[in-house]
Specification:
- This protein is α+β, with helices and mostly antiparallel strands and 221 residues long.
- It has one domain: 2-Layer Sandwich (Endonuclease, Chain A), CATH 3.30.870.10.
- Helices cover 40% and strands 20% of the residues.
- It has 7 helices and 8 strands.
- It has an 8-stranded mixed β-sheet with strand order 1-7-6-5-2-3-4-8, sandwiched between helices.
């Protein structure tokens, strides 16, 4: 049932990606056109970043104004970079922070292994255990920096590793991973709340959260 839900939501968002990228080629001057179309259709789409990595400055700005934060990531490298450093330094105080990363403990035919196999097709540097090791490293990092966080919870999942979601009460950044590129090189959609794409992003996160297991329980210092 969960896989079916992920498939439906991924198809909807993938269609939006194709439509937008057909109109726009990642150019900032045309963001006004996307916003206008979004207002007319109710999708809530505000911007399209040609590469996920180009969104980090705007992510940092939105995190600074967030009442709550939800992150679903395939590896979690963004959590260790500049965009999130004010949060871990205690400069931000959201009501809650929920993080979801793939479960590195699952052996055999896990979704993390399947994503690793995809990466190896175009990046020969990815050995079978490299992605798993990177997720463990990021979990270790979060274990340390979250010690002073209020209402912080880290969970792991073993579900289709197909997207990254960074969401707040104001907006969501939604990236669907390609089988032929790293997530940082994939297009990223910025969706305002309320709107269809924003709802899809939260549904993606909530579906994974329901089937996840705690790594770090909710903290209340």
């Amino acid at each position: 049932m969960t896989e079916f839900l992920f498939g439906i939501l991924s198809s909807l968002a993938a269609s939006a990606i194709l439509l937008v990228l057909g109109l726009l080629r990642g150019s900032r001057p045309l963001w006004w056109l996307v916003t206008a179309c979004s207002w007319c259709t109710g999708t809530g789409l505000g911007r399209v970043y040609r590469h996920q990595s180009s969104a980090e400055q705007d992510i940092a700005r939105d995190l600074g104004r967030a009442r709550w934060i939800k992150v679903l990531a395939g590896r979690g490298n963004v959590l260790t970079r500049e965009a999130f450093s004010p949060l871990w330094a205690g400069e931000l105080s959201p009501e809650s922070t929920q993080i979801l990363l793939p479960d590195p403990r699952v052996q055999g035919d896990s979704w993390l292994d399947r994503r690793s196999q995809d990466l190896r097709r175009f990046d020969p540097g990815f050995t079978p255990d490299l992605l798993r090791s990177q997720v463990r490293t990021n979990m270790d990092y979060l274990t340390q920096v979250s010690r002073t966080q209020r209402n912080f919870e880290l969970r792991s999942f073993d579900l289709p590793n197909t997207c990254r979601v960074i969401a707040t009460d104001r907006a969501a950044y939604l990236t669907f991973y390609s089988n032929s590129a790293h997530g940082r090189n994939s297009p990223c959609l910025y969706a305002r709340a309320p709107g269809l794409l924003y709802s899809i992003a939260l549904q993606q996160f909530d579906a994974a959260w329901m089937d996840s297991s705690p790594v770090l329980p909710a903290s209340q210092p």
